[in-house]
Structure formats: C-alpha cells, structure tokens
Amino acid sequence: MKAVLWLSLCISSVVNAQHFINIHQKAKMVDTHNDLLTAVIEKNLLMDGDLRGKTHSDLKRFKEAGVDCQLFSVWCDGEKQHPYAWANREIDTLYAVAARNPDKIAIVANSKQAFKTIKDGKIAAMFGVEGGHMIENDINKLDSLYARGVRYMTLTWNNSTNWASSAMAESTQALAKKGLTDFGIQVVQRMNKLGMLVDLSHVGEQTFWDAIKTTTKPVLVSHSNAYTLCPVFRNLKDEQIKAVAQNGGVIHLNFYSGFVDSGFKKREIAFMTSHAKEIDSLKQTGMQQEYAMSIITAKYQEESNALRPPLSALLDHLDYIVKIAGVDHVGVGSDFDGITSSPQQLDDVTNYPLITKALLERGYSKKDIYKIMGGNFWRVLVANEKTK
Question: How many domains is the chain built from?
C-alpha cells in the first residue's frame, strides 16, 4: 500500500511539473529589462559563451528559460562621459552577437517581426535605453537610437536630465524645478510619434504625472514594484499604479531584493561595508559601482544569499498590483545582470518557470499567466506601433 501511495505521489509530482513547464513554454515570454550588455562589457565576457557563475544570463540560458523576447537595457550611469557613444557601443555588442548566432537570436523592429522570429524558434531582441541622459539633450539622437532597434526609453535613470527629474533626485534633493520641461514634453511626444514606449521606471513623481498627462500611447514601467509593500523611491505608489492601468500601460516587476523587501537594504549596506576595500579596488580599474558590487556579491555567495528575501515576497508585489490595476497591467522586468541580489530561488534566468509555478499555486489561470508572462507587453507594444 505504501509503495502504491509513493508511486502515486511521484506521478502526481511529475504531472504537476510538466503542467507548469508546458504553460511557461507556451507563453510568449517577455522580460523587459536585462542589463547583460553592460555586464559583458564591464566584465570582459561574451554573452554567447557559457557564463554560468559569472552572470545571471547568457544566450543559451535565455533559451533554456523559455524567454521568447528580451529587451536588453542600454545603460550607463550619470557620470559616464559621452553616454550616446556608450549606448551605441552596447547596441553594437548585441548586433555582433546576433550576426554570430543567426539561428538563435535576431534583433527585431516591431511586433510582427518578433512573432515571426519566435515562431522560427529564435529569441526576438529589442533594446531599451535606461536613462534620457543618453540622448545628450538632442532629439535627433532619439531618432537614431530608434532606427537601431531601441523600443523604449526610460526618461531618467537615478540621475535627472536637464529636462526631467528622477525619483532619486525628487526624493533626496530640494529641486527648483520638478517634472518635465518643455523639451521633456517634446521628447515624450516624439517617442509617441516614433512608436517608442515611454518608460516611467526611475522617474520622479512629478515627471511621472507630467508624462502621463502628455503621452497619447500606453506607457511602460519596465522594472518597478509597489511602494506600499516596499517604500523606496523606485517603487510606484497606489495612485501611480491606478494611473498606469487607466492609461492602458503595464508595470513589470523588478527582482532586486531592495525593491522587494524593505529590510534588505540595511542588510546589504552592512555586507558591502564589510567588503568596501575590494569594491574600491575594482572601481579604481574603471569599473562602474554596480558591477564592482555584483562581483563581490558573487565572490561571497553564501554570505550574500543569506540576505535575500523569499520568492513569495516578489509574488506579493504582483498580487498587490493585480488587486489595484488588474491582471492586464503587470509583467516581468527582472533587472538581471544589473542587480546584486534577487529573491530566493531566482538565481538566474533559468528559474523563470518557478514564477509560472508560483502563479498557478496562487490561483492564477492559464490565461492570466499568458498575460503576465508576455501578453500584456505585446498589447502595449502593438498600441505604440499604431500611427493614429
């Protein structure tokens, strides 16, 4: 009798595993924010090599993870000289990878090309510029980036631009002017005309509301969570979540532990302080702070793993946004390879199916999961592509 019961439990476990994996594979999965392009440049790696233990992602693991469309972040911090040239260097990196691997990945210009690429069994790749400082106050550079495959731009990163105030600046500085300037309004209008999604992660509250008022297309929030559950400047307050839903936009969850769990930052600061000399040494080589921190996190893995919140904490953010905005307005924007810590079980991109499993366990339907794992993004992208 015990043997029969054991066999029955094993069969049930296998069937359940196949069920969530099948659902995950059938979804046209989109991750709207991954920083691998910056990571491979900073760490002198090739993204079509085996990068296990070095990064959260690589070309092979994207496929293993069931990623159908990846939006690659084009990023540098506000201190980088000539950010537009840097942006093009990162874009060149992906074009080179696609040229070496034409059977695995293709850079696409629109949803139609993306769907064909996915049908052909390849990863559809697009770019998202993370920070309006990278157009260097020149709207023509926005057009040029669009022509190279950039399909969203985050109006600011942590640093403000001359034309838009960031969430970090609005929350930590006494600014004479908050929100969008006249030029900032022109940038949003030009993005609408091009069909480039307006990304409102990282922007200050006034910039957020100015952009919502200005845009004629649904917005993207590429990698942010719920402020009520984790009150940090990078997360959205309830009224902002409602506004994105009313606009028809979508909010993609960020995996960074510090935006998931309000107690994490204090734990991380203590960890980084204990390794400050090594971080400073890496920075002296020219490495940007975020990537110096990621190397130290990987080096002291057991110590850093103990700081991480549970996967359930990330799903709580999803539930909360769904409760306020509805299931049509949430997705996945991991921030992998741009973060030093993610929730337990989400060690790299190959763990994405665990999110699908957790969604099923929380009572989300197959239809809901298809929306969350990509459908909501496709709806917003198509809406932005329309010329009228």
Answer: 2
